[in-house]
């Protein structure tokens, strides 16, 4: 009997040691995997920067070639102009000068008046160090306001909140879009007077614009010039950094704003985004990737007289991802994958007196001082629905997009939250967190997480999970207000995920975090 017990204890000891070693190995493997993921994202970001710089060099080479063409054109009547070059160089220069490319549309098709002045696309006065290669470029357009200027306060707020290292990793560009010599400070006014020809050369005739959308002639002129100012800033900034952030001249920034924006952008380096929004107001705090600026500028030039800048940006997103055969809700879901909102806001609008003469604007960003009551994640496009009664506009749609938390009144048995994906997905893991800082007791309990596979044919793990009557498989449940876990790869791909309430709740329910982490998307052709 003693021998048997000893043997049994040894066996259990071996099992315990094996279990500990296995867990340690898994822990080390997970740490290595996380390290590899970080290295991969860092490498991807370096490749993005390298690609951007390659585009810059390509643009510079094209500029040099254009200068060669002009030089050849100017010396066509001189027989001795090229005698100092070798025969091979002369042949190359003549080929470059005489090449007949297709007539590709460019800025001069949309702004033909620029052809009348060679310096129309060069800053009349340029003060700065010409720095390039930074992570972030911030652009601020400014004009004289009749009542009060907020520019100094804006610059002080931005600069004072930068560390020494951050100052080396960013460029702040101030664009003075003035053409009248008496409308700014004496020093700037004198400069404007000296360079009046160059300053006015960029703008087309703004006196006979068509009045649209009920706007007055002065407002149409103001918004049209504003579009051109934004475009000039973007063209100037495109070669200076990886990201471009559009700001205004009447804002204040939150502490640590630079690191927050940079880290958020790097976290999304694997996502196909076009705009990151760090403020909900107008064109404040909008971040773009530098390679996208050329597309945006071209689009603005095509329609700069037609609509305000924020409308034009929305149209770009519509053109890129919206299907005319789908409804508006589907379009908004698709656009949300390109335009991602960060909360709480990092910039607050403080200007009471607009640059449009006589306009008072009491605009403030309500998210600027709010505590963070929810956490945003980039989730796959999906149609979301719930049987629960929503409280005060805290909808499930807003939560899924990372805009708000979901708040429902006392869930009952049988209630559900459903995410029906626009196309099949392979889910790696999920996380749902309930309650928040202001209402920590509004947690979800007695609720399961269920997924709906595309097909049950060949499912190897289906016996491991409880199957509902409508073919969903239970893969997790809420414990202490949180549901998180991994999805067995054999259950993928899936077309829907559902939270199902199994028991009446005595409290209200808040979903403050929803994360559905994917391995990859499927197309129906792959299935």
UniProtKB/TrEMBL annotation:
Pathway(s) of this molecule: Protein modification; protein glycosylation
Family from the record: Belongs to the glycosyltransferase 54 family.
Top-level taxon in the UniProt lineage: Eukaryota
GO cellular component: endoplasmic reticulum; endoplasmic reticulum-Golgi intermediate compartment; extracellular region; Golgi membrane; Golgi stack
Residue runs in coiled coils: none
Known function: Glycosyltransferase that catalyze the transfer of GlcNAc from UDP-GlcNAc to the GlcNAcbeta1-2Manalpha1-3 arm of the core structure of N-linked glycans through a beta1-4 linkage and participates in the production of tri- and tetra-antennary N-linked sugar chains. Involved in glucose transport by mediating SLC2A2/GLUT2 glycosylation, thereby controlling cell-surface expression of SLC2A2 in pancreatic beta cells.
An annotated GO BP: protein N-linked glycosylation
Originating species: Neogobius melanostomus
Membrane topology of the entry: Single-pass type II membrane protein
Protein name from the UniProt record: Alpha-1,3-mannosyl-glycoprotein 4-beta-N-acetylglucosaminyltransferase A
MGAT4 A/B/C C-terminal domain segment(s): 382-513
Principal place of residence: Golgi
Compartments, as annotated in UniProt: Golgi apparatus membrane; Secreted
Domain MGAT4 conserved region: 103-368
Signal peptide positions on this chain: none
